[in-house]
Specification:
alpha+beta; 5-stranded antiparallel beta sheet; globular
Length: 571
């Protein structure tokens, strides 16, 4: 009797196992079968339009937009898209199904070599990356404090002469940007399927997309030049360009998406997790804080007003989660996390170390979600970047403290350590410290520089999502590098003093600049007022340093004599 029961039990277990395997196979095949059943004739009716019918359940989770033969399956590699990357690890820009994993280094550089293999012809390259006074986004009427600021002599200081060794790329701009070179016939302007890129009388550089112009304009001294019209055009592209594919960015503690546009540009998307009014809970550690999309947007504008110009362009965008994420993603791991909430909103959560679960899902209203889009930097295969550990990195531990938190003479040790023992690196870290304190950003564990320029170059201010978390608290520990080292550039000190004046009030300048973003208002009033308060704290720290050590020992003169005299006479 026991043997019979045992045999029946084994048969039952085997049947359950077979049923589970069958269901698993059916779930995996369902998207492909639905896509095949949909056929090419359903391109105009793919997925649900939840923004029009929020009460209806979306049709066919697996249905993808119809593609031509050139697009079927995983997409062909866009040869010019490899110019872009946002991370400090070569593999972290890849989705779980990215073809870049199978692409060799020789293939990555082939397209860009087309642009740089010929000799230079005069100064054509400089024609579209030089400073201009045009700004398409300037307010049409009324007095603009922002325009008045940029007319000040402190914002007209010229960078040193840029030679070929000082540019990130030496490009022959006589070569036109032709999408056919990427072996992809789908390069079309949206709504105009017959337009072709044919030779015209315009300079070849004008045919480049704005993201490529941005990359070519990077040099040893700045990520982009002042009043460069390409930056404003790139910000518009981030908001308006059609999204053609989406994938999760690997690595990182919270969910980020890599979005590819119709013009082959790419951007890093950080979705909205908190409202403007929410502050970081007081019991949260800095390393478990949320990353805020509006902080990324505000950081770009603040960096520009401080005249650092070290944050890649960032713009806010309202994204349709159904049509612009779910229906265009080829990342199965992302696609499987979409669901409909009890409130009948479209939600997803993706995969990451923190806050990627049903309980922390990102939900639309009903399928619209805000987010920041940060333009990618050139791909690491073409422009290597070096990652540096921040000397004032926090311990990222609940109980332990970092060395700088317990040793008041810690900066003396840093000053004797390369690359901080010479050049401008230590002064650039002070700039970054002031930038972070104004935002309240405690999460600056590493920073990056372009390897080509060695140690004599600027620091790239990446990843600012943990700024603007608390307007009611000023984290003085962020300023420890400045108070310990008591060093600052003269140009930075003068600009901080200028921004503390009523006529150039920092909060009002940032507020005016943020009005240009589509998701305005980006910061609530208390965050803007907190910047003015923190600016006074920075100036007080520098004043105490000057009083103790003397002006010449604290303020490093980075201005030539002619510029310094001009600024002094206008103050």
């Amino acid at each position: 009797m026991k043997m019979i029961l045992f045999r029946k039990f084994r048969v039952l277990i085997l049947m359950v196992f077979l049923i589970a395997c069958t269901m698993h196979i059916m779930i995996d095949l369902l998207p492909k079968l639905e896509k095949r059943a949909a056929g090419p004739g359903t391109a105009g009716n793919n997925g649900c339009s939840c923004s029009h019918r929020p009460s209806e359940e979306p049709q066919s989770w697996g249905k993808q937009r119809a593609r031509t033969g050139a697009e079927s399956g995983w997409p062909d590699k866009h040869t010019l898209r490899i110019l872009q990357d946002f991370s400090n690890e070569p593999s972290s820009n890849l989705s779980s199904h990215s073809l870049e994993k199978n692409t060799g280094p020789a293939d990555k550089t082939e397209a860009f070599k087309r642009l740089e293999q010929y000799p230079q012809h005069g100064n054509i390259e400089k024609q579209f990356i030089q400073d201009t006074n045009t700004n398409d986004n300037q307010p049409a009427k009324g007095y603009s404090k922002l325009n008045a600021l940029f007319e000040h002599s402190l914002y007209k200081i010229q960078v040193p002469g840029v030679i070929d060794e000082d540019t990130l790329f030496n490009v022959n701009t006589d070569i036109r940007f032709n999408p056919k070179a990427a072996e992809n016939q789908e390069w079309q302007n949206e709504g105009n399927n017959e337009e072709e890129y044919v030779p015209t009388g315009e300079p070849s550089a004008d045919s480049y997309p704005n993201w490529l112009k941005f990359h070519i304009g990077i040099n040893r001294y700045e990520l982009y030049s002042r009043h460069n019209p390409v930056i404003d055009s790139l910000l518009k592209d981030l908001v308006s360009q059609k999204i053609t594919s989406v994938a999760m960015k690997s690595g990182g503690t919270q969910l980020k998406l890599i979005m590819t546009f119709q013009n082959y540009g790419q951007a890093l998307f950080k979705p909205m997790k908190q409202t403007r009014e929410q502050e970081t809970p007081p019991d949260f550690f800095y390393f478990s804080d949320f990353e805020r999309h509006n902080a990324e947007i505000a950081a770009f504008h603040l960096d520009r007003i401080l005249d650092f110009r070290r944050v890649p362009p960032v713009a806010g965008r309202l994204v349709n989660m159904t049509k612009e994420i779910r229906d265009v993603t080829r990342d199965k791991k992302l696609w499987r996390t979409f669901f409909i909430s009890p409130a009948n909103n479209i939600c997803f959560y993706g995969e990451c170390s923190y806050y990627c679960s049903t309980e922390h899902a990102l939900c639309g209203k009903p399928d619209q979600i805000e987010g920041s889009l940060a333009a990618f930097l050139p791909d690491l295969a073409l422009a290597k970047r070096k990652t540096w550990r921040n000397p004032w990195r926090r311990s990222y531990h609940k109980r332990k403290k970092a060395e700088w938190e317990v040793d008041p003479d810690y900066c003396e040790e840093v000053k004797q350590t390369p690359p901080y023992d010479s050049g401008s690196r230590l002064l650039n870290v002070m700039d970054m410290t002031i930038f972070d304190f104004l935002m309240g950003n405690m999460d600056r564990h590493h920073y990056e520089t372009f390897e080509k320029f060695g140690n004599e170059t600027f620091i790239i201010h990446l990843d600012n999502g943990r700024g603007f978390g608390k307007h009611s608290h000023d984290e003085i520990s962020i300023l420890v590098p400045l108070s310990q080292c008591c060093r600052v550039k003269r140009s930075t000190h003068l600009r901080l003093q200028l921004l503390a004046k009523e006529e150039y009030k920092l909060s009002e300048l940032v507020e005016e600049s943020l009005l240009r973003d589509k998701l305005m208002p980006i910061l609530i009033k208390p965050h803007l007022e907190a910047m003015d308060r923190r600016l006074r704290v920075v100036l007080k720290v520098l004043s105490d340093c000057i009083e103790r050590d003397g002006y010449n020992n604290v303020v490093e003169n980075d201005l030539d004599s002619a510029t310094a005299n001009t600024i002094t006479s206008t103050r």
